[in-house]
From TrEMBL, chain A:
Transmembrane segments: none annotated. Keywords: ATP-binding, Nucleotide-binding, Transport. Pfam families: ABC_tran. SUPFAM superfamilies: P-loop containing nucleoside triphosphate hydrolases (SSF52540). GO terms for molecular function: ABC-type amino acid transporter activity; ATP binding; ATP hydrolysis activity. Residues 6-247 form the ABC transporter domain. Belongs to the ABC transporter superfamily. This is Amino acid ABC transporter ATP-binding protein, PAAT family. Coiled coil: none annotated. PANTHER family: AMINO ACID IMPORT ATP-BINDING PROTEIN, PHOSPHONATES IMPORT ATP-BINDING PROTEIN PHNC.
UniProtKB/TrEMBL annotation, chain B:
GO terms for molecular function: transmembrane transporter activity. It is found in: Cell inner membrane; Cell membrane. Residues 17-202 form the ABC transmembrane type-1 domain. PROSITE patterns: ABC_TM1. Its main location: membrane. The lineage of its organism: Bacteria, Pseudomonadati, Pseudomonadota, Alphaproteobacteria, Rhodobacterales. InterPro entries: AA_ABC_transptr_permease_3TM, ArtM/GltK/GlnP/TcyL/YhdX-like, MetI-like, MetI-like_sf. Keywords: Amino-acid transport, Cell membrane, Membrane, Transmembrane, Transmembrane helix, Transport. Belongs to the binding-protein-dependent transport system permease family. HisMQ subfamily. This is Amino acid ABC transporter membrane protein 2, PAAT family. PANTHER family: L-CYSTINE TRANSPORT SYSTEM PERMEASE PROTEIN TCYL (PTHR30614:SF0), MEMBRANE COMPONENT OF AMINO ACID ABC TRANSPORTER (PTHR30614). The keyword Ubl conjugation does not apply. One of its GO terms (biological process) is amino acid transport.
Length: 256, 221
């Protein structure tokens, strides 16, 4: 598997007068796990969604393996076809799973292979089965999402993304909508992916995951990237007062 | 009351009812198709196109069907649109029903969670494929009860076609009434026919709804 590198340079994003991202600079190294952390409303999800251009950034550059996404040149939007081409190699997993409820687990995973990659039904099905087995759902392939737990749904969503053989995976708070006892199964699948050398960008509130799995942790606050570095330097010896206060709140909330 | 007269007029009324069902079915299908097209164009087209369509919706919804039918049937020839009663009636039903169906489809599309559309975009699915594979199936499920409801309303709008001499049930009932002066009997028969039709549609609608929502009932914990 070839892993992508992402360069984010001076990215700005406005919602009307509100500036959601302020001159964000960040390099996502290939084959590594980068966790985006920070208080809610800090812009981490917005930044993540700029990487596959689900969110259109207004200024700056997001490059995937050197190629600018969303624009042909500054201010000139990329054609839909070119954007779709780039998105094929970027997998995304959402907080709300976003499985298609009218399709079975297998159909959810096979859909992109058939409609986007142009695989035959049979090949797509075989590959979808592999992906589902990989996330431990070999016995749930015929289930519709309504017949799956949250953790199982999220694993189907991960299978749907990895079946497309992406070179980069984006996770937008993948465990935030889950009951606490279902978080583990999803994180386990993500760790397996990380161990295989997938480039991963993960917006998360799971500090444990960030501390143990991330190669890089980036902290955001109020649309700004405050600091990025190895987990130890950000989570254990934070220099910035905002990170210290964020971690203090986190520890207080999670202690009993 | 004397229903003996029905022996004589029965076949004519039945033919009328057949025409009613036919006009309703075709009119509804055409209106639904046009409504769906309008809703899709409203969702994706440029602003000025949407503005024109919105004007069409407002005008058609803002005027009585009876008036629209008159304008179409008697005003049409002035611009070279000369239609027989039945085609005029069908076109009238199509035009009259389309904005209501368009609004029903629009709200059905809006009920599809944005995230499920984004999930399709994120894997690089083309917009048309998204419409076909995600937006339509899910939007139709949300829209179904309202679609059935408005189709039922349309059954009763077909009686208005009698004023441009479409030989549907109302037209035959009026003929029978003026020939026999049995106004009450004739109209009761008409009521019975309509009630049977509506009941059938509503049952079919519920059955269809149960079928297509089978997998969508999420059990929330």
């Amino acid at each position: 598997m070839q892993a992508s590198q992402v360069e984010i340079r001076k990215v700005n994003k406005f919602y009307g007068p509100f500036q959601a991202l302020k001159n964000v600079d960040l390099t996502i190294p290939p084959g590594k796990v980068t966790c985006l952390i920070g208080p809610s409303g800090s812009g981490k999800s917005t930044l993540l969604r700029c990487i596959n251009f689900l969110e259109e950034y207004d200024a700056g550059e997001v490059r995937i393996d050197g190629q600018l996404i969303g624009y042909d040149a500054p201010g000139r939007k990329m054609s839909g076809r070119k954007l779709r081409e780039m998105r094929r190699s970027i997998g995304m997993v959402f907080q709300q799973f976003n499985l298609w409820p009218h399709m079975t687990a297998l159909e959810n995973v096979a859909e992109g292979l058939i409609r986007v990659r142009g695989l035959s039904k049979r090949d797509a099905q075989a590959r979808a089965e592999d992906a589902l087995r990989k996330v431990g759902l070999g016995d749930k392939m015929a289930n519709h999402p309504s017949r799956l737990s949250g953790g199982q749904q999220q694993r189907v969503a991960i299978a749907r993304a990895i079946a497309m053989e992406p070179r980069l995976m984006l996770f937008d708070e993948p465990t935030s909508a889950l009951d606490p006892e279902l978080v583990g199964e999803v994180l386990t699948v993500m760790k397996t992916l990380a161990a295989e050398g997938m480039t991963m960008v993960v917006v998360t509130h799971e500090m444990g995951f960030a501390a143990h799995v991330a190669d890089q942790v980036a902290f955001m606050d109020a649309g700004e990237l405050i600091a990025a570095g190895d987990p130890a330097s950000i989570l254990h010896q934070p220099q910035d007062a905002r990170i210290q206060s964020f971690l203090r709140t986190y520890h207080e909330r999670n202690s009993f | 009351m004397d229903f003996g007269i029905l022996q004589q007029y029965g076949p004519m009324l039945l033919r009328g009812f057949g025409n009613t069902v036919l006009c309703w079915a075709l009119g509804t299908i055409f209106a639904m198709a046009l409504g769906l097209l309008i809703a899709l164009v409203q969702r994706y087209a440029a602003r000025w196109v949407r503005w024109i369509i919105q004007a069409y919706i407002e005008i058609i919804r803002g005027t009585p069907f009876l008036v629209q039918l008159f304008v179409l049937y008697y005003g049409g020839p002035l611009i070279g649109l000369r239609l027989d009663a039945v085609p005029a009636g069908l076109l009238g039903l199509t035009i009259y029903g389309s904005p209501y169906f368009a609004e029903i489809f629009r709200s059905g599309f809006r009920a599809v969670p944005v995230g499920q559309i984004e999930a399709a975009r994120a894997i690089g699915m083309a917009e048309l494929t998204i419409v076909r594979r995600i937006l339509l199936p899910l939007g139709l499920v949300s829209a179904l009860p309202a679609l059935v409801n408005f189709s039922i309303i349309l059954t009763k709008e077909t009686v208005i076609l009698s004023i441009i001499t479409v030989p549907e049930l109302m037209y035959q009932v009026q003929r029978m009434s003026t020939e026999t002066f049995r106004y009450l009997e004739a109209n009761l028969v008409l009521a019975l026919f309509f009630w049977a039709l509506v009941e059938t549609i509503s049952r079919l609608g519920r059955r269809l709804e149960r079928r297509i929502t089978r997998h969508l009932l999420t059990e929330r914990t």
